[in-house]
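$ fold --in a.seq
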Amino acid sequence: MSDRSDPRPLSALPSPAARAAAFVAILLGGLAGALIGYSLVRVQCSGQCAVGRGLGVFVGAAVAGIGMSVVAVLVLRALGEWRDLEDRRSKSGQS
């Protein structure tokens, strides 16, 4: 049973601000990976390298975006556990 005095409904979802911050972090990680992939191919290639640069951008963005999404999920789960611990501590009367 839930306590009616609690203004926040019981949910495993992180706050919308935390989810938005995670989304922006994933996008920025993907952008950084794309720039790194492009730069690596540009430094190593001479002549016609349009396909190589495109692949560098794609692979760099994909790898960095996937890695950043793993980090974001772990952070969101940690925030959820921290909030759960704080709720339990406040309900038991501890500081």
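$ fold --in b.seq
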Amino acid sequence: MFFRQRFVPGLAIYSYMVGDERTKECAVIDPTRDVDEYLAIAKAEGLRITHILETHVHADYVSGSAELKARSSGTAQVHCSGLGGKEWTPPYADHVLKNGDEIVMGSVRLKALHTPGHTYEHLTWLVFDHTRSKDTPWLALTGDFLFVGDVGRPDLLGEEARKKLAHQLYESVFKILPPLPDYMEIYPGHGAGSLCGKALGSRSATTLGYERRFNPSLKPADEPTWITRLLEGMPIAPPYFRRMKQVNAAGPKIIGLELPGHRRIPAKEVRDRVCEKCLILDVRPKEAFAAAHIPGSINIPLGHNLPTWAGWVLPYDTPINLVLDNPNDLTTVVTHLIRVGLDDVQGYLDGGIEAWETAGYPLERITTLSVHDLARQLKNGTRPTVLDVRTEAEWNSGHIEGAIHIHGGQLEERFAEVPRDKPVVVVCGSGYRGSIAASFLKREGYTDVSNVIGGMAAWKAAGLPTV
């Protein structure tokens, strides 16, 4: 049996390729929208992608199933669950599945097991290798049902749906899982860093027996107690999750061979487009952005977390113009953006920020402070507003006395809580999220904004006090 796991950092996505080395048939499970890697692997291994499978309608990224079918000359068949009803059955599905349906590729067999709870339609794919055993699954591709150390969250579709999904998840955990063998390998749809659960482990795989012993969510309890424990401390779900659900249920558009955004845009046109409500997304490092940036631009530094924060804070109805540190980063940046459905990338600033400076256009800057600078400011008579944009759990683990706490993903909804009549100093874990928040404050008209380099990690390392 051919088996390959692919990991996308940041969004912490696992997708899979399973095939038969004799017949050369291959299935791709839960592909992302950037499909070149699956095609390259198949070509290198001499395989044909004949089947594309989904575990469920994803909330955190745009499904690549339709894209992969289009890039496979349209011959691969897409298989999606129909167990959530018409609303949650993607229109691009060639085969609508029910519980127990199977896909056979030579000696490899994949069986659909309905495991609702994270979503209504969710499937786990049991994988059999008939050269080893025809009756016992070797491994399971569990999607967002069962993770390493956790289970999928049931609260992404609103309060009323949460009650029903939580009950279904309880039933899936304690009625559907028990007959399966301890030694069955578990390959989840996400790893540590994903917001589809609250305590995902960093290991890429596990066994069902190990999870039964050490996964808190697999410990038996009465249903109300189990659900309360499951939801306690659940991280805030980004609002773009609901949009991703809608995009995937309706069917995303096909990108094709050429990614958007390859047009070089002169500085004058970028300046004119700001007035036309185009968004300027600056992906340079936070230090470079702080030193000089285009007024009104938003900073999300290029890194694994770019797609999560872009999906969380950027509008979906506004064209995007990019400011890059290096034009060679363009493909990486655009790939991050299309994974979360931000497709309208118009192009990038030709010549970078230097071209803007040379043209004599206005620049903005954000003051950067060390933790020692901030500590001195807090001792004098002109105490600034300290805005902590970390998560609830981070805040509870220790914060600066007198700080205001607003999760960075909620800042746009809560500007009114941040005073405008004195300096604002933004602090996060390391300075990355602080730069995003500071850029939004500047765009909103706050004039005296600083970002603490090193964030609370540096504050604690320096031995400065927290409450």
